[in-house]
Design brief:
Helix content of chain A: over 70%
Number of strands of chain A: 0
Mean pLDDT of chain B: 85
Largest interface: A-B, 74 and 61 residues
Structural class of chain B: mainly alpha
Oligomer: heterodimer
Low-confidence stretches of chain B: 500-506
Shape of chain B: globular
Radius of gyration of chain A: 24 Å
Mean pLDDT of chain A: 85
Strand order of the largest sheet of chain B: 1-2
Number of helices of chain B: 20
Strand content of chain A: under 5%
Largest sheet of chain B: 2 strands, antiparallel
Order of helices and strands of chain B: HHHHHHHEEHHHHHHHHHHHHH
Largest sheet of chain A: none
Distance between the termini of chain A: 54 Å
């Protein structure tokens, strides 16, 4: 591993640690904004645990930041084989992660208007593409078959209502 | 009810055709998810939680127990034939098991794993039946302060044990506690961390966090490392049955494994991973063939595989008697109890003998079923691995979002799932274990409830946690778990610092 990459990994670790500190501050603030008038009645108010959790997050984040700066903890976003140009392989992996993520977002966005079958088929094909399959139409067909079978099983035998798509009037 | 009477009653419950069917479904499903990479028992039980609305509790828990058990059997298969442990608790099995498979003794490795699991599962179930009532009579003395301290102990041990570093384990735990804070406070009715989203007022479902951190994060993580995914299945070869020599070398590790695993599971010490490592090193020390370790020593498969099954059974002791989960799967089973309005704890044994003893008896039956399912049929399970990785991951994601969407039919939940998936991916990349987060989400609100109840009883006096002997003892152990490892490191580094100048002089 060359120096620049280990630097990036430690910087990423520092970023994660600082995000924990940030979350801790946010939880503290949320606890503070709950309001204290009912404390006397409940003895321990609803803000005690948010305070404790927020303080804990800040302390853990600070300690993790220290180990990130010392170099004893690093965050590695993608693993590469080490053969061939590493940088290009790294970004190709990161774009695959993005593709799987976008499949989930597409599914969440389309499941209500277009229905379970179409949304799931699209997510299925995006995922297989990200995992390196290049038979797009075949994968779309597999995804469609898979989600249709699930749709039928769940709606007709288990009685679970899955969305059929509001765009064409199904519920 | 005494132990024998309880067990007899349990068998009369578990041997009804419908409950036998649930046990069979559970162990089959469990073996499948144990074999398949990327899904485990915690995720499977989480996705089946919605079924609790339609199933009677006895059947549901018999099924969940079967899944938990079956996953332990199934994951040994992938460890041995693929060198990819399906679950963390089979990591050690892969070391020797895969070597054995490459030497042509794969069938024997599978056999010793399955029979060892059976022996350990049966012995541990007996220990469960024996000890649970004792723990129950002890647990009846527990007050809210003691329960709170017990949960603190579970928090610290789980963070210390699951994963590679205490600090990162605690990071995961606190992330889970944060998620657990979201929603309306049960005692005062005030919204916390809900960010003005009405969908968050009821809190965040554990299913969403589990599916996000396990299934979605797994897909994102694996795709970021997909060039390393070059699995090679070793075909099962060699004589299908163990030789006399292999039997002779296996039976002691089975028994030792059973004894190591159970207490680790039963104490709130964080599940099945640690004892398998212990069992492995013990077998290596005791073996007459220590040179074979690393080359495929059968003891290194027999011991750890017996251990992990025994530990899984042990985990049921604190879950059933105290309502205290010590693994992610147990935590999700606790949620299932809550959904039925049941409170695991001492009273469960009095009020629901059908459920408790039926579940315990079904574990015996499940063990027999698993032996049959795994010994002759191991070859069929391995076929599951022929599913190409792209389709497996895509299929898991479809099921994952289906499971989350079917909770409330809410797109908001799917958005939350995406966020948790991303969080899980960051955690995996940062080597932060995810199981403590699940435990934090489930135990956090319970711990808060006990904390506030304890202080209400003590009129707001916080020393109640230290003046009650049970609570004080438990807290002392928890603090020891927290400070012992860093203290040890500190002493070690100080000693090496002191000795290093001397070395320079020489």
């Amino acid at each position: 591993m060359d120096g620049r990459r280990s630097g990036t990994r430690s910087a990423s670790a520092l970023l994660v640690a600082l995000a924990l500190v940030g979350l801790g501050l946010f939880v503290l603030h949320q606890g503070y904004s709950i309001g204290v008038e009912q404390t006397a009645y409940a003895r321990v108010g609803p803000q005690v645990f948010p305070y404790a959790v927020g303080a804990g997050l800040i302390a853990i984040g600070a300690l993790l930041a220290r180990s990130a700066l010392k170099g004893s903890w690093s965050v590695n976003w993608a693993e590469t084989t080490g053969t061939g140009p590493t940088r290009r392989e790294f970004w190709r992996h990161m774009s695959s992660v993005g593709l799987v993520g976008s499949g989930l977002v597409v599914n969440a966005a389309l499941i209500a208007p277009l229905g379970f079958v179409i949304a799931s088929t699209l997510m299925f094909a995006l995922t297989t593409w990200a995992f390196g399959s290049r038979r797009l139409f075949f994968d779309l067909a597999v995804g469609a078959l898979f989600s249709t079978v699930i749709f039928i099983i769940f709606t007709y035998t288990l009685g679970l209502s899955l969305p059929g798509g509001t765009l064409w009037g199904a519920r | 009810m005494d132990v024998i009477g309880g067990l007899l009653h349990g068998f009369s419950v578990a041997l009804t055709p419908i409950n036998l069917l649930w046990a069979l479904i559970g162990v089959t499903l469990g073996t499948a998810v144990g074999v398949l990479p990327g899904i485990g028992p915690a995720l499977t039980v989480a996705m089946l939680l919605p079924l609790t609305g339609k199933l009677d509790p006895v059947g549901a828990f018999i099924m969940f127990g079967g899944i938990y058990y079956g996953a332990m059997y199934g994951s040994s298969t992938t460890s041995i034939l693929l060198n990819t442990p399906g679950e963390n608790s089979s990591v050690v099995t892969a070391i020797e098991g895969n070597r054995m498979a490459k030497r042509g003794r794969g069938a024997a490795a599978l056999a010793t794993a399955a029979i060892g699991s059976f022996v350990a599962g049966t012995l541990a179930t007996f220990a469960l039946a024996l000890f649970a009532p004792t723990v129950v009579s002890f647990a009846l003395k527990f007050g809210p302060a003691d329960y709170f301290s017990l949960m603190i102990l579970a928090f610290t041990t789980v963070s210390a044990v699951l994963g590679t570093s205490l600090l990162r384990g605690l990071a995961s735990l606190f992330l889970g506690l944060t998620v657990g804070l979201v929603g309306i406070d049960m005692q005062t009715g005030q919204a916390r961390l809900a960010l003005d989203f009405p969908q968050l007022l009821d809190g965040i479902e554990v299913v969403i966090l589990a599916v996000g951190l396990f299934a979605v994060a797994e897909a994102l993580f694996v795709v970021s490392r997909k060039s390393l995914l070059a699995d090679e299945i070793v075909p099962i070869s060699g004589r299908i049955w163990m030789t006399r020599e292999e039997w002779r070398r296996s039976w002691k590790p089975w028994l030792r494994g059973s004894f190591i695993g159970f207490p680790f599971g039963a104490l709130p010490a964080g599940g099945a991973e640690i004892p398998t490592f212990l069992s492995y090193s013990l077998e290596r020390k005791l073996s007459k063939h220590p040179e074979e370790f690393g080359q495929g020593a059968i003891e290194g498969v027999a011991g750890p595989e017996a251990t992990n099954n025994s530990a899984v059974t042990g985990v049921l002791v604190p879950l059933l008697t105290l309502g205290l989960p010590t693994s992610a799967t147990a935590a999700i089973m606790l949620v299932a109890f809550q959904q039925y309005g049941l409170h695991p704890g001492p009273l469960l044994f009095q009020n629901n003998p059908n459920l408790v003893w039926g579940l315990i008896a079904s574990l015996y039956i499940g063990n027999v079923m698993l032996l049959v399912l795994n010994l002759p049929l191991a070859g069929i399970w391995v076929r599951l691995l022929a599913i190409p990785r792209p389709y497996l991951s895509a299929g898991i994601l479809v099921f994952a979002s289906l499971g989350v969407y079917s909770l409330h039919g809410s797109v908001f939940d799917l958005g939350t799932l995406c966020i948790f998936g991303l969080l899980g991916y960051v955690m995996r990349c940062a080597d932060i274990p995810v199981s403590p987060a699940i435990l934090g989400l489930i135990l956090g609100p319970l711990a808060e409830q006990q904390f506030r109840r304890a202080l209400a009883i003590s009129q707001g006096d916080p020393t109640v946690f230290l003046t009650r002997p049970i609570s004080a003892t438990i807290l002392a152990v928890a603090i020891a778990v927290l400070i012992a490892p860093p203290l040890y490191e500190l002493l070690k580094s100080r000693r090496s610092k002191r000795s290093s100048p001397v070395r320079v002089k020489v």
